[in-house]
Structure formats: structure tokens, C-alpha cells
Design a protein that fits this description.
This is chorismate mutase. By secondary structure, this protein is an alpha/beta fold. Helix content is 35%, strand content 22%. The chain has two domains: 42-56 and 65-211, Periplasmic binding protein-like II (D-Maltodextrin-Binding Protein, domain 2); 216-286, Alpha-Beta Plaits, CATH 3.30.70.260. Strand 8 and strand 9 (254-262) form a beta hairpin. The structure holds prephenic acid (PRE). Prephenic acid binds next to helix 1, helix 2 and helix 3.
């Protein structure tokens, strides 16, 4: 026998429980699916961080370079992921997710901060997006000050504007870059939608970049005589270093050129010896990815 209070009888005037709305049920089911996937993703992100911690603790990288940053390796990771990427998530969102992960990985390996000299808010934003939302970023009044912060170990990376031919002598930071101590190691942004004129910047650290498999080098050329751009381009091409870009400056009596060439060119590369100029590699970067 059931006790009377166990029987669920509708009482006069009460309304029956509302049937669940089918769209609410569907929403709850999809959100439950998302929760399961978020847990899995989180698990993997934590496992990845454990591997980076093991890498850092092993000391394998110790002493090789002042900064934990390996832009070439990061470029290889991002290129591989972009190649396998499919589905509706925009590639820019994929890259930004990994930029946060990679920045967090660098921070885990010791102090990691960035000195920024930006000509405008867009370049400052590039630094923030590339080095993640959590990385300490400090703005400097001049490129020289941002470089000094890296040279004295206050920061691990300087983010500086891409050189422009017509800029003032004090803005042309590359003319005095203390290479090979300080070198260009990355070009920002690594990924951007194609077909747009994107603002860009260069990153400088102590020591050289690690090659990524598709790289470019910046060469500083100091010319003994004032030869023209076409002549210099021809000499570079004849040496096996056809320039993708060539900026020429005449500051006081000194003629300097900045050339961007394909591949990784070291200071002892024999091709540099045949040039009609003193040539010094200023570092280089992984060729940035520009979307369709
Ligand atoms: O491969 C390394 O050297 C790492 O430190 C790991 C890692 C990563 O998280 O994948 C982190 C930072 C570097 O800039 C590159 C890669």
C-alpha cells in the first residue's frame, strides 16, 4: 500500500509541469558536447605545458641563447597546423590560439618580456597579438631604447617598425644594429589574411633565429662608392643573392643598403665575399604566411 502523501495527485487549480522546449533540449545537448570537448582540449593543453616544462627542466636549451623564444620552430608549428586546418574556425583564430599557447610556453621558461617601439597603435597591437595577452610589454620612446632594453637583458625581445627607405636617420634603427649580438629573428604578423596591406614589424633578440625551412635574411651593405640601386641589385644577383627588397640610404657621407634575400645567409657565407660592399647579415625570419 502506498501512503497517501506519496501519491502525486494534481490538486485543484494547479497547472501540469511545462513540457521542455525542444530547442532548449537541443541547446543543452550541444553545450554538453562542447563541455566534453573543452575538457579534452584543456587536458591536452595541460599535457603540452608539462612537456614544455620537461624541456625547460632538461637544460637542453640552456646556454644556447639568452631568450627561450624560437621563432623558427614556432613558424614550423603554425605552418603545419595551417596546412591541416579545415572547417569553419577562421585560420586567424587558430593562429591566435597558438600564439597565446606559445607565448605562455616562452614565459614558463623564465622571464619573458617585450620592449616595443611602435610608430602607431597598429604596431603596438601586433606586438600584443604576437606575444600574447599575458606577456609583459613595455613601450619605449625610440627604437634605440627598445634595443638597449634587449642588449642589457631588461627585455628578451624588441619589436620595431619595418624599415622604410625615406625615414629619418634616427628612425633607421637597422643602420646601427649591433649584429651578430642583436639580430632580427621574426617578422610580425606571422599570419595575416592575404590581399590586404597589413601593418608589419620586426622582432630583435640577442642571438640568431633558428631556421624554419623557409626563411629570409636581411643584409646591411656598406658601400665604398655611391653606386646606384640597379647596379647594387645586379651585383647581389650576380653573387647568387637576388634581392627581394633593396633600400638605399645616404646618411652624411655613408652609403648603406638594406637587402632582403631568400634563405639563411650566415656572416661567413662565401657569396658575401664577392660583393662590392661590406656585407653583414642582420638576422632574418620565417617567411610570413599570408592567407588566401
Ligand atoms: O621548442 C622549444 O624550444 C620550446 O621552447 C617549445 C615552444 C612550444 O611551446 O612549442 C615554446 C617556445 C618556443 O618559442 C618554441 C616552441
Amino acid at each position: 500500500m502506498t501512503a497517501p502523501h506519496d501519491i502525486d495527485l494534481p490538486t485543484a487549480g494547479s497547472t501540469p509541469a511545462a513540457a521542455p522546449n525542444p530547442s532548449d533540449t537541443a541547446l543543452a545537448a550541444l553545450r554538453a558536447e562542447i563541455d566534453v570537448l573543452d575538457d579534452r582540449l584543456h587536458e591536452l593543453v595541460m599535457r603540452r605545458a608539462d612537456v614544455v616544462a620537461r624541456l625547460a627542466a632538461s637544460g637542453i636549451k640552456a646556454g644556447r641563447q639568452a631568450s627561450p623564444l624560437r621563432p623558427g620552430r614556432e613558424a614550423m608549428i603554425l605552418r603545419r597546423l595551417l596546412r591541416r586546418h579545415a572547417g569553419p574556425l577562421p585560420p586567424g583564430a587558430l593562429v591566435q590560439l597558438w600564439r597565446e599557447i606559445l607565448a605562455g610556453s616562452s614565459a614558463m621558461q623564465g622571464g619573458f618580456s617585450v620592449a616595443v617601439y611602435a610608430r602607431g597603435p597598429e604596431q603596438a597591437r601586433l606586438a600584443r597579438e604576437h606575444f600574447g595577452s599575458q606577456t609583459p610589454l613595455r613601450s619605449h620612446e625610440t627604437a634605440a631604447r627598445a634595443l638597449a632594453a634587449v642588449a642589457n637583458g631588461e627585455a628578451q625581445v624588441a619589436v620595431l617598425p619595418l624599415p622604410e627607405e625615406a625615414e629619418a636617420p634616427e628612425a633607421a634603427w637597422w643602420t646601427g644594429l649591433d649584429s651578430p649580438r642583436l639580430q632580427v629573428v621574426a617578422r610580425l604578423p606571422f599570419w595575416a589574411p592575404g590581399g590586404e596591406n597589413v601593418p608589419e614589424a620586426l622582432a630583435v633578440t640577442q642571438g640568431a633565429a633558428d631556421p624554419s625551412g623557409a626563411d629570409r635574411t636581411l643584409l646591411r651593405l656598406e658601400l665604398a662608392d655611391d653606386r646606384g640601386r640597379a647596379q647594387l641589385a645586379a651585383a647581389l644577383t650576380a653573387a647568387g643573392l637576388p634581392p627581394r627588397l633593396l633600400q638605399l640610404r645616404r646618411d652624411g657621407g655613408v652609403v648603406r643598403a638594406l637587402a632582403e634575400v631568400d634563405g639563411v645567409v650566415a656572416a661567413d657565407d662565401p657569396r658575401l665575399g664577392s660583393l662590392p660592399a661590406r656585407a653583414l647579415p642582420l638576422g632574418g625570419y620565417a617567411v610570413p604566411e599570408r592567407g588566401e
